[in-house]
Amino acid sequence: MGEAEKDSENVGFDLHMFSRLWKIVRIIFPGCYSVPTGLFFLLLFLCFLEQYLAYYMGLVPSKYYKVFDDRDQHEFMYLTLRACGLILSIACVISVKKYVESVLYITWRQVLCRALHRLYFSGFNYYSLNILDRTVDNPDQRMTQDVDRLCLTLSTITTKVIISPFQIGYYTYKVFVGTGWLGTVSIYGLFFLGTVVNRLVMSPVVKFVVKQEKCEGNFRFKHMQVRVDSESISFHVSGLVESVKTNLSLDTLILAQQRLINRQILLNMTRYIFDYLGSIISYLAIAIPIFGGQFDDDENISSIVSAYSFVCMYLVYSLTSLVDLSSQVVLLSGVTHRVAELIECLFKLQTEWDITTLHTSSSFANITQNLQRRSVRGEEASSDSNCLLEENAEKGLSISEDDQQPFNIAFIMSEVDIVAPGSTKALVTNLHLDIRKGDNLLIMGPSSSGKSSILRVLRGLWPAARGTVAYDFPPGPKVVIFLPQKPLLTNGSLLEQIIYPLRQDPKDPVSNDTCENILSLLDSLHMRGLVNRAGGLRNDPDWNWNDALSPGEMQRVCFLRLLFHRPQFALVDEATSALSLDVEEQLYKACLQHNITIVSVGHRHSLKRYHNTLLTLDGIGGWKKDTIYQECDEINPHSERDMSSL
Ligand SMILES: Nc1ncnc2c1ncn2[C@@H]1O[C@H](COP(=O)(O)OP(=O)(O)OP(=O)(O)O)[C@@H](O)[C@H]1O
Known about the structure:
The structure is a single chain. It is elongated, with a radius of gyration of 35 Å. By secondary structure, it is an alpha/beta fold. The strands form 2 sheets. The protein has a 6-stranded mixed sheet, sandwiched between helices. Strands 2-1-4 form a 3-stranded antiparallel sheet, with helices on both faces. Belongs to the ABC transporter superfamily. ABCD family. Peroxisomal fatty acyl CoA transporter (TC 3.A.1.203) subfamily. InterPro entries: ABC1_TM_dom, ABC1_TM_sf, ABC_transporter-like_ATP-bd, ABC_transporter-like_CS, ABC_transporter_sub-D, P-loop_NTPase.
């Protein structure tokens, strides 16, 4: 059983649930003067007002009894008018209360989701959570559906829970005055019995809610897979396979729902038993003073019974409505556990990320300072690479916040072992590598030998199993850009694809000159047709770019990012594998012309022409570095074609 499964087995309606709920409450109430706090107190006020009006409304029937007994027509008219006023006020208060409740629910949802997004998109938490750390299932579902249910349930039950003590206290006093201690105790006895039975029945149901939510997430994910990969599935004519698998995840979900429903039978049974017992017990409570002779024979029993039965019933109602909340509390407990688990995991990843970032940048500073010291001492470098490092250090390799400043070294890897997550076998061992300006590096090797993994470790997605990885440069596309193996296209216009990872600021739109540059870049790659298809550069065609473009077009669009941003370093993973050699040459030479230092991962030998160092992995942990000697004109970006347009 996995760690995640063990955790979902250990959930219930207990102290752990309350401590997790408290964490969430601290997020959804960001401060004393925040909107959610204001809305919450307004809601509380409306709830009290509703109760106040309900009390007077409840006494109206008993007053009618008295009016009829007295044959008082004038009082009857007055009472009717008063009742109409009360009805109008209570209807207004309840509808405004429901409105505020809904606004509070969506405000909480926004606050909680934004807090989760902040953590999720901080550093590489989204990557770690989805790829590396598997302790939390379906984070997407937790942030969408579970947060929604949590906020909705919380907004409907919190005020009930808060005003209950006041409501119960007041009606207990009234019942005690009317029926004495025996009536009060019998009502309370019923409530405590109901609470104990409910607590026993409720707690085991929580884990079934958690399981059902998990299956719900898996089911949705399966549908999402089919949506994203519909073309590939169609090529395999594998609709039947996907249909079977989707039905399988549906069946698992239905089974989980059925199990939950089975458990809920008992919960509902106890709930309704206590509901109906409640309606009887109020009359039993009134019977005590009546049969006990507390009222005189000539007293108007029917109006007294009506008045007392109202307070008794209201006390019973207040108590049983707490018990009635059990099914909502079960749901709340289930989603609280799921959302809190996500928050806890994100906090853990955030802490790890902060430590790693601190470690890598301080390692970088230490390494570069050591290099400087060594060069001052005049130590002889033992290898070519050391010579170069020292050369760079002497030039004053300072890491600055300014992304326009030239960076001589972007990354340093020293004695690094790379191990894939969940594996024990090293893909690459004792790797020494520094990515420095002007040294275009090509990484080759058999499939699965760990070529992309080197980029993952450089990017900080995977930790190095041993050794030091150091990098320290400002974020943003002007210093370093990575192009992953799978082209990444976002939603939005063609312009947004090319300026990615920057985004259009609606207040400061991309200038016409920049658009002209982008258009000429697209022209030079014969991609003007795409601009027309997308309805213009700035137009959002509202399509899924991954479905709308061919793999070659996707690679060309992604590569154009490099030529648009012109970073100092570009680390590209098989970014031209779907392109013709012609286009590959055109793109690489443009990069060289713009003085972009390239680190490429690839299989094609044609790539050697654009690099001067070759790192070859042997697939069993070993590696070697060689210099690639070029014919002079081979790497001359101007030799064959004028690249100025790019
Ligand atoms: N997220 C992951 N979790 C666990 N193992 C992984 C993960 N990603 C990759 N691996 C494993 O790491 C190994 C190296 O993968 P990598 O992507 O670095 O290979 P590669 O040399 O780039 O291969 P190719 O040439 O086929 O792209 C593979 O065996 C792969 O299965």
